[in-house]
Amino acid sequence: MTPLVEEALKSLTVMVNLSNGILHPSDESAAKEYFKALYKEGEPLIGLEVTQWAVANGWQPKHAKELGDLAQKIGSGGRVVIKNKGILKSNIIQILKDRVTNNV
């Protein structure tokens, strides 16, 4: 997993209610927006890595798998519908890059 993908997962983990995973429409939309932005940036989205990271960082296994499946779908070029667009800032990739740079 690249540092940028991990930073996005950290941000998403802070946003969502971990007991529900991405069941809430706004949480699902945020996950989709993160993954689509990462995909457009050329970041690899590997479902198993996302699932394993999520479980290791407090997600329920069922919800972690759903997150990993979503990452895999988007990372493979699959289309998704974002119901609540605009949850993330338009420059989210730059924000994540700045965080990664400052953490190193």
Any key phrases for this structure?
single chain, mainly alpha, 5 helices, 104 residues, AhpD-like
Write the layout of secondary structure elements.
Elements (H helix, E strand, L loop, with lengths): L2 H13 L9 H16 L6 H10 L4 H15 L16 H12 L1
Helix pairs in contact: 1-2, 1-5, 2-4, 3-4
Describe the structure.
- With 104 residues, this protein is mainly α.
- It has one domain: AhpD-like.
Number of strands: 0
Helix share, percent: 55-70%
Largest sheet: none
Helix-strand pattern: HHHHH
Indicate the CATH architecture: Up-down Bundle
The level-1 CATH class: Mainly Alpha
- Radius of gyration, in Å, reads 12 Å
Here the CATH topology equals AhpD-like
Tally the structural domains.
Answer: 1
Give the number of helices: 5
Give a brief description.
This protein is an all-alpha fold.
